[in-house]
Specification:
This protein has 10 helices and no strands. The protein has about 220 residues and is mainly α.
C-alpha cells in the first residue's frame, strides 16, 4: 500500500467516523432534547471513545451544526471564486439560487424535528448566530483584501450580504417547524432570496465587480 493510498484510507475513515457520530448525536438530540444528552452517551451509542467525539467536535453544539466550517466559510469562498466582472452580491445570489434548485444543508433545516430542536434551544440559537457572525467577518476580510480598503465600507457590505444569508436560514427553520415540505420551503427560499437581494441591489449591486476583474487578471 502506498503512502498516498494509506492517507486516503485514513481520511475516508475519519470522514465516515465523523458522519456516524453526527448522525447518532442528531438522533439522540431529536429524541431526548439537546440539553438532555451527554457526550458520553453519544460516544457509547456510536461505539467510539469519548475523546473521539470531542476530537471531531470540540463543541457539543457543532454535533448539531456538523457543517459549521462550511457555514463559516461559504460566503467568502463564493465571493473569492466568482468570475471576473461579477459583483459580490451577484455571486452570492447565483450560488443561493443554485442551492435552492437542488437542496443543500447550509440553507437551513428542512427536517422538522431538527429545526424544532434548534429553534427551542437558546444554546443552539446562540451558536448559530456565532457561526453567521463568523461568516460575516470572513466575508468582510475577503472584500477588504480585494478592494485594498481597510475602512468601514467592506464591513458594511459584508454585514448586509451576511444578514440576507442569516435571515434566509431562519426563514427555512420557521417554515420547517410550521410543517412545510422541503419542495415548498425551497421554492419559498428562492423567492424570498430574490426579494432580499433586490432590496440591496441599488446600493451594493455593483460592489466588487471591478475587484473581481483585477484579482483574476493577476
Amino acid at each position: 500500500m502506498t503512502r498516498v493510498t494509506a492517507e486516503r484510507l485514513r481520511d475516508r475513515t475519519k470522514r465516515q467516523t465523523r458522519q456516524l457520530i453526527s448522525d447518532v448525536a442528531t438522533g439522540l438530540f431529536t429524541e431526548k432534547g439537546f440539553g438532555n444528552v451527554t457526550i458520553a452517551e453519544i460516544a457509547t451509542a456510536a461505539g467510539v471513545a469519548r475523546m473521539t467525539v470531542t476530537n471531531h467536535f470540540p463543541l457539543k453544539e457543532d454535533l448539531v451544526f456538523d457543517l459549521a466550517g462550511e457555514l463559516r466559510a461559504h460566503l467568502a469562498k463564493t465571493v473569492a471564486a466568482r468570475e471576473p466582472g461579477t459583483s459580490a452580491l451577484e455571486a452570492l445570489r447565483r450560488e443561493y439560487t443554485a442551492k435552492t434548485g437542488c437542496g443543500n444543508d447550509t440553507l437551513g433545516g428542512t427536517d422538522p424535528a431538527w429545526a424544532k430542536m434548534v429553534c427551542e434551544s437558546p444554546v443552539l440559537l446562540a451558536r448559530l448566530r456565532e457561526l453567521h457572525d463568523q461568516a460575516e467577518a470572513e466575508l468582510a476580510a475577503r472584500l477588504a483584501e480585494e478592494s485594498g480598503d481597510d475602512g468601514i465600507v467592506p464591513k458594511v457590505v459584508a454585514a448586509q450580504l451576511a444578514a440576507v444569508n442569516r435571515l434566509l436560514f431562519h426563514h427555512a427553520l420557521r417554515r420547517s417547524v410550521a410543517g412545510d415540505r422541503e419542495p415548498e420551503i425551497l421554492r419559498s427560499l428562492a423567492k424570498t432570496a430574490e426579494d432580499a437581494y433586490a432590496v440591496l441591489a441599488p446600493s451594493i449591486g455593483d460592489y466588487g465587480r471591478t475587484f473581481a476583474t483585477r484579482q483574476n487578471s493577476h
